[in-house]
Design a protein that fits this description.
This is Restriction endonuclease. The chain is 21% helix and 23% strand. The chain has 242 residues and is an alpha+beta fold. The chain has two domains: 73 residues, no CATH class; 125 residues, Trna Endonuclease, Chain: A, domain 1. Strand 4 and strand 5 form a beta hairpin. The longest helix has 15 residues. The chain is globular. 26% of the residues are buried.
């Protein structure tokens, strides 16, 4: 199971009795599936479940697709609900219903919900690095993070995208260079999006200095799959979220 942005554990619903399929070619549509969180009703992209056969073949487990019109979760808006308490009257105008409660005290302000604990994915492969970074970004408040279709890369990293977000994940064993940091920052600037960098091997000093100067969050990944902030911009993102 993997955590939804709301903190509830979510598992892709497998198709019972369906045989697994051997993985012979990888594409974006095969790598990720859409999963509905039963706790909050959020739709998210999750890694396609796979398992390894002792013969070396990777098998893909079939996942039940999300219905075209999924049932609303607890957090989704539904029909108008009368306010609590007795002695209410209702009138209907067109398509909207208006309730007129009698002397109902105002509801107390909702308390801020603390962010749930982050549940990392141990890193064993390059794909694990990307998955861990994507989960972390969703946990920070970017629920619609996806990996774009493959295209020409100007940097050694792997891109992650979301509304208002440009992220780069470098799974190599070399520190991230100044050029790579500047390229990501410029791409985010041109798209009016926030840039975030993840690296396994850390950053060159010039790259860190430039990231500090432009406010680009830098994170370094450990093998537990938990990103650690490297600079002040990353500390601020971790503290405040998206």
């Amino acid at each position: 199971m993997l955590p939804c942005a709301c903190g509830a554990p979510v598992a892709p619903p497998l198709v019972g009795g369906a045989p697994p399929e051997p993985v012979t070619r990888r594409t974006w549509n095969d790598e990720w599936v859409t999963v509905l969180c039963g706790a909050c009703g959020r739709l998210g992209q999750w890694p396609q479940p796979e398992l390894g056969c002792p013969c070396g073949t990777v098998l893909r487990l079939p996942v039940r697709p999300v219905p075209a019109d999924p049932a609303p979760g607890p957090s989704r808006a539904g029909s108008p609900v009368p306010p609590p308490g007795g002695g209410t009257t209702a009138s209907t105008t067109g398509l909207s219903t208006v309730y007129a409660p009698a002397q109902i005290p105002p509801a107390p302000a909702a308390a801020a919900v603390p962010r749930p604990a982050f549940h990392p994915v141990p890193i064993r492969t390059v794909r694990d690095v990307v998955t861990a970074a994507a989960l972390y970004l969703r946990w920070l408040g970017f629920p619609d993070v996806v990996q774009p279709e493959e295209h020409a890369q100007t940097r050694p990293g792997i891109e992650l995208r979301g509304p208002g977000l440009y992220a780069e994940v470098d799974p190599t064993t070399r520190p991230v260079t100044l050029r790579a940091v500047e390229c990501l920052w410029l791409e985010g600037l041109a798209a009016s999006a926030a840039g975030v960098y993840f690296s396994l091997a850390g950053y060159e000093q010039k790259a860190r200095d430039r990231a500090d100067g432009v406010g680009l969050p830098l994170f370094v990944m450990d093998l537990t799959g938990t990103p650690q902030p490297v600079n002040g911009a990353a500390d601020e993102l971790l503290a405040g979220g998206a």
